Amino acid sequence: MSTAGPALLAALAASIALIIFLCGRFKLHPFLAIVLSTYAFGMMAMGIGAATGADERFVDNLGTTIAEGFGTILASIGLVILFGTIIGKVLERTGAAVTLAEAVLKVVGKRHPALAMSLIGWVVSIPVFCDSGYVVLSPLQRSIARKTGKNPVVLGTALATGLYASHTFVPPTPGPIAAAGNVGIGSDGLIWVILFSIPVSLVAALAGLAWALRRTGNLESKLPDAHQTFEEYKAQFDRLPSLSRALTPILLPIVLMAVGSVAAFPSGDGTLVDGAFGSLLKDLGNPVNALLIGVLLALALLPSKLDAKALTTWVAEGLVDAAPILVITGAGGAFGAVIKGTPIADYIATLIGDGSAVSGVTALLVLFALAALLKTAQGSSTAALIITSTLAQPLLPALGLDGNLGSIPIGQVMAVMAIGAGAMVVSHVNDSYFWVVSQFSGMDVKTAYRAQTAATLVQGLSALVVVLVMGALLL
């Protein structure tokens, strides 16, 4: 092991570098980049095992290990990702996202337009992808800019960072769901990811808002005056759903998951709620079941005159949006399975020794840095979340991030939060969201770097501070 350990660590570093190189230099899809790097690491590991005379072959049957790792992670998280994506697509297409935006605007008031845009973005991006959310809400941002005389760059940056914060942290957004599954958080633990992600993501959103207000007021937008107003955009929908109907597909699944987790709390020789009623609450709180209920409630938003063909098209669009995330998640699961097939985690544990060097809070910094490196190099926050969580899972015990706080898998939850913070740093020209924000806000590339890119750096670092404080108190 002493001979194989350094070589395995070098092989893992090389495989991560290969992912970054293939995505960055050749613009290869992350799915193929991860698969190729997985095979590269597996073959290097087998060669290292043979060269060092290991008692057992590292990664026995590489193809089978990869296939099993791919299937196992999708079996645990695939339907959750699909259901969450479909909910978001229906909310977008029915105008429910517009209803949510108007509700936040009424609460905050038009005297604080930047704060309103930030909070609107944060709320809407919990179920809706941030790219889609920005497109949907950009007419509102432009309309408010004209009504209030506020700089469109300020409002655009506030909206973009609000969307980005919940997109990176808060389930049922697929990226955080996939990361939670990758680090081994079961269905009964997903609610803790949601509860911890809310304060972390709100701090990130407010940090982005502060940057927008203080650092972008002198930047110029090239938006023409002829853009569609929010009122004109609203007119595309025959009838917007009420606020209660728009919120229910999001809130009810979260409530069901929370109630199911409470019911499953250990109590005496059983759980807090036993018997048939307890079993019912736990079943309803399973994320797959809870989000399926959310899908059905979202479908209830559909106008009565909508034909089946339109509904099928919307669902198909949701499935198309989910497909890249599913395959990247599966590829990440395969990579993790190959890593688990080697003794690299044991070697890292020997390097850490008594845990004084890289453990707990320090380990959170390591996960943050790795996610930030992957995000900056290849552009996708979702891919950074998935890849980093895949690499982290077999190493969590060695990093001191496998502990529980009562029934809360606190080490794994903190790992997801640290990875999410890193996956925000930074959005620039290799990120599709950068171009959505810049084009719909009338920013040139230089302006977008000073506004959007710099803001995402501030957001990631602010979120990291919160995560490290939580880690110091709870780990």
UniProtKB/TrEMBL annotation:
Single GO molecular function: gluconate transmembrane transporter activity
Record's keyword terms, sorted: Membrane, Transmembrane, Transmembrane helix
One Pfam family hit: GntP_permease
Cellular component, GO, one term: plasma membrane
Bilayer-spanning residue ranges: 6-24, 31-54, 66-87, 152-170, 190-213, 246-264, 284-302, 314-339, 351-374, 381-401, 413-436, 457-474
UniProt xrefs under InterPro entries: Glcn_transporter
PANTHER family linked to this entry: GNT FAMILY GLUCONATE TRANSPORTER, PERMEASE
Protein's recorded name: Gluconate transporter
